[in-house]
Design goal:
The complex is a heterodimer. Chain A is α/β, with parallel strands linked by helices. Chain A has helices spanning about 40-50, 75-90, 105-115, 140-145, 150-160, 165-170, 185-190, 195-205, 215-225, 240-245, 265-285, and strands spanning about 5-10, 15-20, 25-30, 55, 95-100, 120-125, 230-235, 255-260. Chain A is globular, with a radius of gyration of 18 Å. In chain B, a hairpin with a 2-residue loop joins strand 1 and strand 2 (about 25-30).
């Protein structure tokens, strides 16, 4: 197979990443969502490997990366973005495109807005940069942001990575759920059921509040730097609904926009269509093929 | 586009389940019904997950079915006293599976446990065989490696000390070893394979079930001669693709 699997110590944490393709070709960095890992990109990576250099890291506490004890490590989006950027620096990746999904959006938009000259293109799939994109799913988050000790909110939120909630994330509003592989949630659960992982998920739910005040900065980055952007979005996602995708139109001039009639993990049900769009977009925009 | 690549077809895989002899059997299906059938059967300690990349590669030409055996992958795990975890019974499950899906003619991919199970099926002549593909699936005494010989010895001389050794065969270190040993480039092995297997192995009662299956493996040896004669008599078109360092 084309993909290879690596680990590298980054800022003291063992980071796992999938890699494929020729390093001389344009690089695409794939940033996964909650509560999964680079496993969500397993098919996309194979599809793009002939034309691009692809890297997909797992964040600390996710997938096959190390899960440092919560007392020794700040489980924050700020820290995740520092780790991902350090990994890219150490691998001497100077220019790259970013694929931002779910948690990948606040991780990747931090990197992009702070290093605009290193960004070739942005691909956004069910990842948010606008407050209007945070609908009812986010009510218990807001309660937790108000009060870190809100037990009811914490209990509600923890159901989303329990077996049933996790399966729901993969299948909700997917037109034909028989195409969604159960490998997804079973492999996620392997990591989610590690001791202390539930506390880590909660820490990140709480830290998500730090992303919202950065939205205006990211929007300003879009207006100032006019990055090339491809949106491929499951419009029926309950977590990041299509309205959050529409919002990018306000600020992003160089935008190609595609909604799909499906849910959160759109690659599972529209992987063929999304992969083709990405390949075509990257070939045109990176101009190196 | 004419030559569809792996991922372009990956979403064409369907994840389904049906009841066979009162046991819920999970299977992956791809390709058009009506095209030549190919049944992929997994080994220990895996499931149809092991065929996740092969399936989309072949789904343009074949109708592919990859079931999980009871106690493996996402199929049901009937209790040990309610289901015979034997290779002969697994063969009955596969026969029932093919019958339910109206498959009367197919090719078979025989790997590891799948080899004895499918040879039982083939020997009954109820399903017409197109082709056989053997991948590290043995039906010859000289093909039994030291590992399997050791475990047969330990089962034949079961005591607490030997039992403890056998129990290692259903632990994570061994599961991981099965994927990594003999591999020239370890970076090419996807870690989700052994982690998924381990996650499923941790379910209540699974280790005992898998030890029972391992114990039953010996019963296959009595059929080797008949299976070899079947291959000699039938001369099915056969492809061997084999990891030589296994």
């Amino acid at each position: 197979m084309k993909t290879s699997y690596h680990t590298r110590k980054v800022n003291g944490v063992e980071i796992f990443y999938r890699e494929a393709g020729d390093k001389q070709k344009p690089t695409l960095v794939l940033l996964h969502g909650y509560p999964t890992s680079s496993h969500m990109f397993r098919n996309l990576i194979n599809y793009l490997a002939d034309d691009f250099h692809v890297i997909a890291p797992d964040y600390p506490g996710y997938g096959r990366s190390e899960q440092p004890p919560i007392k020794d490590f700040d489980y924050t989006f700020e820290n995740f973005s520092n780790i991902v950027k350090t990994l890219l620096d150490e691998l001497e990746i100077k220019k790259f495109s970013l694929y931002l999904m779910d948690y990948g959006a606040p991780v990747g938009f931090r990197i992009a807005s702070r290093n605009p000259n290193q960004i070739e293109t942005l691909i956004v799939q069910n990842g948010c940069a606008y407050e209007e994109g945070l609908e009812t799913f986010w009510d218990p988050f807001r309660a937790l942001w108000k009060d870190r000790n809100d037990k009811e909110a914490a209990a509600t939120l923890s159901t989303f990575h329990a077996p049933d909630g996790l399966k729901w994330q993969y299948t909700h509003n997917v037109p034909d759920t028989s195409v969604v592989s159960p490998d997804n949630w079973e492999i996620d659960l392997r990591h989610l059921e590690r001791p202390e992982n539930g506390d880590i998920q909660l820490a990140l739910f709480y830290d998500y509040r730090t992303n919202v005040p950065l939205y205006p900065e990211w929007q300003e980055y879009f207006r100032t730097y006019n990055p090339e952007m491809l949106i491929v979005y499951g419009k029926d996602d309950y977590i990041f609904p299509g309205v959050g995708a529409e919002a990018f139109k306000k600020d992003v001039k160089n935008l190609e926009f595609h909604l799909f009639p499906t849910g959160h993990f759109a690659l599972e049900s529209f992987g063929d269509e999304i992969s083709e769009l990405i390949k075509d977009f990257l070939i045109r925009k990176t101009g190196k093929n | 586009m004419t030559n569809k690549s792996i991922t372009e077809q990956a979403c064409a895989v369907a994840y389904k389940s049906i009841y066979v002899n009162d046991t819920e059997i999970f299977y992956r299906e791809a390709g058009e019904e009506g095209k030549a059938n190919l049944l992929l059967l997994h080994g220990y300690p895996s499931s149809s997950h092991m065929f996740r990349n092969l399936i989309p590669m072949l789904s343009g030409q074949f109708h592919i079915l990859a079931p999980d055996l009871p106690g493996f992958g996402f199929s049901a795990v009937p209790e040990k006293d309610k289901f015979a975890y034997t290779f002969e019974n697994f063969a009955l499950i596969i026969e029932g599976f093919l019958e339910k899906l109206n498959i009367t003619k197919t090719s078979f991919y025989l790997f590891d446990y799948g080899a004895p199970i499918l040879m039982h099926v083939i020997s009954k002549n109820r399903v017409e065989v197109d082709m056989l593909i053997f991948q590290n699936g043995n039906i010859y005494e000289e093909g039994l490696g030291q590992g399997i010989k050791n475990s047969m010895f330990l089962f034949d001389n079961e005591n607490s000390e030997n039992r403890a050794k056998l129990e290692k065969l259903v632990e994570f270190d061994y599961i991981k070893w099965e994927y990594l040993t003999g591999v020239s480039n370890l970076n090419k092995i996807a870690p989700e394979s052994h982690h998924l297997d381990q996650f499923l192995m941790q379910r209540i009662g699974l280790r005992e079930i898998h030890l029972a299956i391992k114990k039953d493996y010996r019963n296959n040896l009595a059929f080797y001669k008949a299976w070899q004669e079947k291959l000699i008599a039938s001369q099915f078109p056969t492809l061997i693709v084999w990891g030589e360092n296994d």
